[in-house]
Amino acid sequence: MFLSLAFVAWLTISALLGGVIGSLLGLGGGIIIVPVYTIVLGLPVHVAVGTSLVAVVANSASAATVYLKSRLTNLRVALVLATITAAGSLLGSLVGTSLGGPWLLGTFGVVLVAVGVLMLVRPEAGRGPAQAESGEPPSAAAGEAELEGRYFDPSSKTEVTYRPRGVRSGYVFSFLAGNLSGLLGVGGGVVQVPVMNLLLGMPIKAAAATSSHIISLTAMAGAVVYLARGYVDPLVTAVTIIGVYLGARAGARLNQVLPGKLIKRVFSIILFYMAVRMLAQAFNLPSAF
Amino acid sequence: MKTDGAQGAERERLGSSEIVVADAPIYRNLNTTLRVGVGVGLIPIVLGLTFALRGGRIARDTAFPGLGSVVAGVFHGDAVSLIFLGVVILLALPPLQAAVAAVSFWGRGSRRFALVAAGVLAIQAVALLVAWIK
């Protein structure tokens, strides 16, 4: 079987858009790429998921270098949660590769609806209460003190110090995030970031950076399962990795000039549309649009 | 939380803020590992894609042929093998990252986090084993 150059062109455009939109929404490229590859380009859903997961590994590793350099990543929290997330990713990928295409499409459609609703109703994430700025960090248990994080925030020109609390309470959600990642070929940041921000009390920037690092450690556990089962298309993967990488960089720049609330509203409608199309395909229903 | 002797001694010697600073070399080690690894992994992917596009006819095959076949294909300039080599390198980065973290934390006397990193590495190893079981 051969790919046409026109197909490669569409693939490139899709990967670039996936990178831009994923970066604008802070969700990563997978949540856009898997539906577009399945609905628009007609790739089998398992191949779309496997390909996306390999791209997630590549791009999260690339993003992790930036966050490690700026010290936004809380490495100790990342390692603790990565143990659980990796196990979840492995289990999710085993379930994903065992499910039939329609079931996987249907599950993705339901998750897209949930993400779309979350984007519409979720309040803007703020700074967690366990944070202190430019002073003594809040008191915490001895174990929590070992997880303390510190970074310089150039926007406020202050050094931010915080101590995550109740990391064990994040285990269940980390397992869920890993599961979604392995099952659907997404990063899992959509679950991980709010959990670290709201439950563990980490500042949103540190939560996003730490989530990216966790994904760079854990998505591989799911990706190898899809690779071994023959669900990673090398040429589609190559275009996806490069396209998403370039798109994500453009998205990060656009994010600074476009209004955040409007972006979320517009793209939540796109997510709902893709969810309807995926559910229609899953249940073999005619799609009128 | 229970801490071992070395970690207790480390905490006694250093306040928690100093522990954050003491982790700086580990951050540098990981940053270097990832930067070099992503660069090395992307080179064969870009080369493979370029070869495939120059050839005009782009074969589509999703079956991973095995590491031996991939390496042999790379020496013959096969585009798909080059891309698979890049994918393998990128997928090897997370275990390498966990190993570097484990060794770095151990070297700094933080045994608990060295064990946590080793735990991540163990799960990644289990994933590799499970993946190849038909």
What can you see in these coordinates?
The complex is a heterodimer of chains A (289) and B (134). With 289 residues, chain A is mainly alpha-helical. In chain A, 69% of the residues lie in helices and 5% in strands. Chain A is built from 11 helices and 4 strands; from the N terminus they run βαααααβαββααααα. In chain A, α1 packs across α10 (234-254) and α4 packs parallel to α9. The longest helix of chain A is centred in the first third of the chain and has 26 residues, at 45-70. Chain A is globular. Chain B is an all-alpha fold. Chain B has helices at residues 5-13, 16-22, 24-55, 67-75, 79-107, 111-131; one strand spanning 58-59. Chain B starts with a helix and ends with a helix. In chain B, 40% of the residues are buried. β1 of chain A pairs antiparallel with β1 of chain B.
Q: Quaternary status of these chains? A: heterodimer
Silhouette of chain A: globular
Number of helices of chain B: 6
Distance separating the two termini of chain A: 29 Å
Q: How large, in whole angstroms, is the Cα Rg of chain A?
A: 19 Å
Low-pLDDT ranges of chain A: 125-140
Number of strands of chain B: 1
Listing every helix as H and every strand as E from the N terminus to the C terminus, the arrangement of chain A reads EHHHHHEHEEHHHHH
Detail the poorly predicted runs of chain B: 1-5
Taken from the alpha-carbon principal axes, the silhouette of chain B is: elongated
Structural class of chain B: mainly alpha
Radius of gyration of chain B, in Å, reads: 20 Å
Biggest β-sheet strands, sense, barrel of chain A = 3 strands, antiparallel
- Give the H and E element order of chain B: HHHEHHH
How many H/I helices of chain A?
A: 11
